[in-house]
């Protein structure tokens, strides 16, 4: 029988200079993956753009909202509040509000709800006792759906106000606890 071959030389333990590669490479791959995925998600969130609402006063003094959302093909939708007067000074109107940030102030009424995670998202306004909900699929006026059309006009009067609008609820803070929702004013027109 032939003798066994000699055993291979024993390998020396990994040198300390190459140990960092074991940890650095996966960390680098994770970092690059995170940056790419974050950029992709950010693009998906803002690619369609926000709702753009112009708060205006018509020539007869009637407050109105003009709704625009370019990527959905929505433009020049006017919601008039007949029989109401705007509490905002005439010199400051029209005001354009782009709902790309949750804490945007509005010239009249209140921002009752918003979900702007993926724009345009959902925006709910309560103005003069009426509720205006902007969703990508439809415009809800006093909780009645209306299909989106360009160049449309809607008139909201005291006779078609809903019986009652619940005040906005408190919002759960991501850091725990509750914070108050939008504050209602003492003015009964809201």
Number of domain modules: 2
- Major beta sheet, strand line-up: 4-1-2-3-10
User: Roughly how many Å apart are the termini?
Assistant: 103 Å
So what's the oligomer here?
A: single chain
Approximate strand percentage: 25-35%
**Rounded radius of gyration (Å):** 29 Å
pLDDT < 50 runs, ≥5 residues:
177-190
Helix content: 10-25%
Secondary-structure content class: alpha+beta
Task: Briefly say what this structure is.
This protein is 16% helix and 29% strand. It has 190 residues and is α+β, with helices and mostly antiparallel strands.
Write the layout of secondary structure elements.
Elements lengths: L15 H31 L5 E6 L5 E7 L4 E8 L13 E4 L11 E6 L6 E6 L2 E5 L4 E3 L2 E3 L6 E4 L14 E2 L5 E2 L11
Parallel strand pairs: 3-10
Antiparallel strand pairs: 1-2, 1-4, 2-3, 5-6, 6-7, 7-8, 8-9, 11-12
């Amino acid at each position: 029988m032939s003798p066994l071959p000699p055993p291979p030389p024993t390998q020396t333990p990994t040198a300390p200079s190459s140990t960092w590669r074991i940890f650095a490479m996966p960390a680098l791959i994770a970092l690059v993956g995170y940056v790419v995925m974050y950029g992709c998600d950010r693009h998906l969130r803002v690619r369609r753009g926000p709702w753009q609402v112009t708060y205006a006063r018509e020539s007869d003094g009637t407050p109105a909202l003009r709704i625009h959302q370019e990527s959905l093909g929505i433009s020049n939708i006017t919601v008039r509040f007949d029989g109401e007067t705007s509490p905002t000074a005439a010199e400051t109107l029209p005001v354009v509000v782009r709902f790309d940030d949750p804490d945007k102030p509005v010239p009249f009424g209140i921002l009752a709800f918003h979900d702007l995670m993926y724009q345009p998202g959902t925006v709910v306004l309560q103005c003069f006792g009426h509720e205006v909900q902007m969703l990508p699929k439809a415009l809800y006026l006093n909780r009645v759906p209306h299909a989106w059309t360009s160049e449309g006009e809607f008139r909201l009067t005291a006779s078609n106000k809903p019986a009652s609008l619940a005040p906005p609820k408190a919002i759960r803070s991501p850091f725990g606890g509750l914070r108050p929702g939008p504050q209602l004013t003492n003015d009964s027109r809201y």
